[in-house]
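Hey, sorry to bother you again with one of my protein questions. I've been puzzling over a protein and I'd love to understand its fold better. Take your time with it, there's no hurry, and the full record follows here:
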Amino acid sequence: MPKSTIEKAAIEIHERYTQGSLISSAERSIMSSGLSGILDFVDANEDGQRSLFGTSLWMKMRAQYDYTFKEALAFARPPYLDGALTHFIHLCERSKGAAAMAYLTKAMEAADTDEDSIMGLRLVAQFIGSLAIYRTMLDPLPLNGHHHPIAFKIDIRFVNDCHHTSKMIDIAAPRRQTINDNAKLLREGKDILDNLLNTSFEQQAANAMMGVIIQLDGFQGSMSSIQLDQYGLYVALPRYRLQYPRSSASLRRFSDTLDALLALKDQLCSISAIVNNQMDLCKDKRASLGSKHSRPAAAIKPHRLTKKQRPTWYSSPPNDPSLSCLPSLLPSFKED
């Protein structure tokens, strides 16, 4: 079973790690992901978790989970957006910038345009207007020390306001550093997913929850998802490649990225609506009968994924390997 395989390998590496033995970056990724219960399909390297299973079994598992979580971040581009984007790109590639912007403005003002098309066209307009700013930001001269920035992190959150009670919830973690440390960002994505699962009470709501990881490196990157399956595995899957344009003439590479951004928008809206519904449900359940009849409020039965959640493993604060401990819910493996 994948869960026992990644955990056993992680425990073996952790034992060497705590004894002071040097471990490779690939082994550290296997250890940190395995100890956190993460099955990592995002890392495509041969020395990653796939080395524990073999190529054939790895690809079979990947296909199975792609099918299981096929609805995650799925997006179908509206016909209106597809037609407008195709025509706009065609004008840009023919160096007809003024005509392209005039067409884009007219397309956004059409009365019968759907919401996703309007959002998509606005994103295109925003990117066109930001290209000069991007070039300025990439110029090393204005920066201290005349160097390019090497890392940044952005947390995407929303604040739920339920019956005058606010709750801040992490929902996505974009970070450039993940190109160098994919496993660390996946663990942050797992923490986000756990946070969302802890706000869920109904099984249907829990099943819809997912963490989103955005990896950025210059003008390209990727978007991945992490979800908890029925066996207690946090499954990380790649979803979209991100390609940002360097000029209006290279907008064609941005077409699929636009789908990814609109899929992310739909996912954020969906999760925020679910969380708001679950907070209202919790409030109503606690108030039912109890406040009117002096009886205890009806208990809310936890969803079954609650029992599948597990703690996340992180390096010990002083970065002393000898102080590292296994997660509390992780069983010890014994050799037969």
